[in-house]
Design goal:
heterodimer, A: 84 residues, mainly alpha, Non-ribosomal Peptide Synthetase Peptidyl Carrier Protein, Chain A, globular, B: 233 residues, alpha+beta, Ribosomal Protein L22, Chain A, six-stranded mixed beta sheet, three-stranded antiparallel beta sheet, 5 helices, 27% helix
Chain lengths: 84, 233
């Protein structure tokens, strides 16, 4: 899976939780889930679970700490898929 | 230092499914899950503990000047409160708590007949010990967290917000806070603004001057809340 495909599947996952449509349209790797997309912090858990389901991976608590940005999520996914 | 968090229970019901597999395991420690599973009202227990973690996280983000997502590292301590553990008891919280409310130490006491109550907890993170105080009603939960209260009283309030879109929530919460701050300090409300720093921590400005007050804001669904600590270190 290349970078663009990865961002696209991430976008699909986070779309139901966003509260800032403009920031979502302009999403980059640096986009922050809470600060930019105004996602409720409780929904971060849903994003973690959705990512686990979609990519069939397990995200440990330590890795989850960085699930605050698009890049943070991409790094974790790439890392976990590579390790499979 | 203070932090605060509000949960709109009806909104949470719609936006979050805490019963989904692995949801509780990602957020709560084994002890916390036990607390939830043995509570009379499991849903309220989930959001009560979540709200405690969130309000404490806001203090930690200030202390460590970093953002992270590690809800299990902020743990509720369910041991009975003892003097040798020095959990700071939130004193004199200036809160809009209706008269006649009885504080209860642990939320297991909740029953359907108790429409409103106050729950206090002790939370741990690294070497820090926090105390939280939550006002729980059948529609919302508002939690104030404190670290080293220095005998200072936080000033706090929560309120209903008509529209639950982000912009309205955000503006209403700012307006309520600044109106109260203006009343306390006798400063002109229209000269006051709230600006976030590089760590997303909010500060009050009078004209261009940063005020020494510490504030915390929260909104969720149809509810907003804030806490103010004057001259906080």
């Amino acid at each position: 899976m290349n970078k663009t495909e990865l961002i696209d599947s991430l976008k699909e996952i986070i779309k139901p939780y966003i509260q800032d449509e403009a920031a979502f349209q302009n999403l980059t790797e640096d986009t922050k889930f809470i600060d930019d997309l105004k996602i409720n912090s409780a929904n971060l858990v849903d994003i973690v679970l959705d990512v686990e389901d979609k990519f069939d991976i397990h995200i440990e608590d330590d890795a989850m700490e960085n699930m605050l940005t698009v890049k943070g999520a991409m790094d974790i996914i790439t890392d976990k898929i590579g390790a499979k | 230092m203070i932090g605060n968090d509000i949960v709109d229970l009806q909104f949470a019901r719609k936006e979050s499914n805490w019963q989904r597999p692995r949801f509780l395991e990602k957020i709560f420690t084994e002890e916390e899950r036990h607390f939830i599973h043995t509570a009379n009202d499991k849903e309220v227990a989930v959001w009560l503990l979540w709200s405690g973690k969130e309000s404490v996280y806001k203090i930690i983000a200030r202390l460590e000047k970093r953002r992270f997502f590690a809800p299990k590292k902020i743990k509720h301590d369910f041991r009975p409160i003892r003097r040798d553990r020095a959990c700071p008891v939130p004193t004199n919280v200036v809160h809009t708590i209706p008269a006649g409310l009885k504080p209860c130490a642990f939320a297991k006491k909740m029953t359907a007949s108790q429409k409103r109550w106050v729950s206090t907890h002790c939370l741990l993170y690294k070497e820090y010990i926090f105390s939280t105080q939550s006002v729980v009603t059948d529609t919302h939960i508002h939690t104030i967290a404190q670290l080293n209260n220095n005998n200072q009283s936080p000033i706090t309030n929560h309120f209903h917000i008509k529209k639950n879109n982000y912009q309205t929530q955000h503006e209403t919460t700012h307006r309520h806070l600044l109106k109260n701050y203006a009343a306390i300090t006798d400063l002109a409300a229209d000269e006051l603004t709230i600006q976030k720093d590089e760590y997303q921590i909010p500060h009050v400005y009078y004209q261009d001057e940063k005020q020494s007050v510490m504030i915390s804001m929260s909104h969720h669904g149809h509810y907003g809340a804030y806490a103010i600590m004057m001259d906080d270190k």
